[in-house]
Amino acid sequence: MAGQDTRIAIVGGGMGGLTAAIALRKIAGVQATVFEQAGKLGEVGAGVTVAPNAARVLERLGVLDRIRRVGAVPDGHGVYLNAMGGLVTDAAWEDSAKQHQNIGMYRPDLIDALAQEVDPATIRLGHRLVSVQTLGSGVRLEFENGADDVFDAVIGADGIHSVVRGAVGQFPEPVYSGYIVYRGVVDASRLPGDWRMISQVWMGNRRHFMCYPLQQRKLFNFVAGIPSDRPLRGAWSGPAEVRELAAEFAGPDWDPKLQEFIGCIEHTFWWGLFDHEPLANWSRGPITLLGDAAHTMLPHQGQGVNQAIEDSMALATFLAAAESVADIPEAFRRYTSVRMQRTAILQNGSRRAGAMFDAQHEFADLKKRDADLRVGRDFRRSAVFDYDAQKVAEQALNRFQGVPVA
Ligand SMILES: Cc1cc2nc3c(=O)[nH]c(=O)nc-3n(C[C@H](O)[C@H](O)[C@H](O)COP(=O)(O)OP(=O)(O)OC[C@H]3O[C@@H](n4cnc5c(N)ncnc54)[C@H](O)[C@@H]3O)c2cc1C
């Protein structure tokens, strides 16, 4: 982008905001300023999967080697199992070219790996955004600590409760899924020596339990989805007792191997699962959205962060083609038109995946559910994992610019 002195603010120093800062610098040549409300960068002590579609982006941004070094690549494809541990189907775990596999990441390690690529002088901690005001020229941001500043453009990467989202005229209602998850990590040394180094999902009795390795296989992540109305009565997350979780998968109808895993858990916390309907717009003039602020989705396809990483690459690609600050609104408009379609499909697909895991609605007939799960594996590989966010943005750019596509 012409003009190295262009002033862009990214609100939110989570996985999306940090990736956007890296992509803007490396692809668009813009040094953005990141504003984070917390006193230090961090994440909850749980896992996240970096999928092949995001690994492809991170490789081009030069951070994939570091991420692979601290993450865990499984031994092979994952499995969906019934409650007693019988195989329902194998799961997609790599792209069609077999170049990128799922990488299990301990969230604090992923934040660290991304933060190492962002100049600390460009990160403002303890800055909670309270208001956004579009001026004749530029955007004014005000923070709870009394600070304020004016930028040429603003990217809202401030998560599900985004403040920036209001400045683009979007006020979605959070939609509760009817499910909470118990989350956490297990020290792998506590597990049986022959525990499989892959992702496993047990499904039964309207609930499911997933686990996969993290941190060079020293940790195992777990996520257990349980029907509950708890978030409707107060907080959306909180500490939990391991015995509450164990009781949900107790008895002779559940695989003893799963019960053995649960017996190794020392700590857990619960988290309500919310999303929102796809937004009608993400950008207004020099303001746009990215990550959960733009497209909060349920975690059942493991794509929330991965989509934020795709967003970052697409946004930087469109910004790289902007010749001056005056072109930024058009770059944001193009970014929105390309990314909204992709993420709306995944928001919907994530709800559907949850309904499959928990045999809800049309998936109550398990024979049909299992058939859909098997078919879903191939869709996931080709439509989700093979997607090349940079290539798609470049092709779209050619069309926007009227250049014939070869
Ligand atoms: C159980 C579970 C499992 C999941 N598993 C996966 C998975 O395997 N793969 C995957 O891709 N996704 C997964 N996700 C989804 C993923 O966690 C989210 O999509 C991701 O965290 C979104 O990143 P983000 O940076 O957009 O937002 P966030 O992570 O919410 O970060 C937003 C940042 O903005 C800051 N902020 C908020 N408001 C303000 C403000 N007013 N001023 C300044 N700063 C502010 C916050 O402090 C935070 O640091 C899962 C989610 C859950 C609940």
UniProtKB/TrEMBL annotation:
Organism lineage reads as:
Bacteria, Bacillati, Actinomycetota, Actinomycetes, Pseudonocardiales
The answer to whether UniProt assigns keyword Oxidoreductase to this entry is yes
Please tell me the species this chain comes from. Answer: Amycolatopsis dendrobii
Name the record gives this protein? FAD-dependent monooxygenase
Q: Where is the FAD-binding domain?
A: 5-342
Q: Does the keyword Oxidoreductase apply?
A: yes
Which InterPro entries does the record associate with it?
FAD-bd, FAD-dep_Monooxygenase_BioMet, FAD/NAD-bd_sf
> Which PANTHER family does its entry note?
MONOOXYGENASE, PUTATIVE (AFU_ORTHOLOGUE AFUA_6G14510)-RELATED
Query: What SUPFAM superfamilies does the record point to?
Result: FAD-linked reductases, C-terminal domain, FAD/NAD(P)-binding domain
Q: Domain of life of the organism in this record?
A: Bacteria
Alphabetic keyword roster: Monooxygenase, Oxidoreductase
An example molecular function term from Gene Ontology annotations: FAD binding
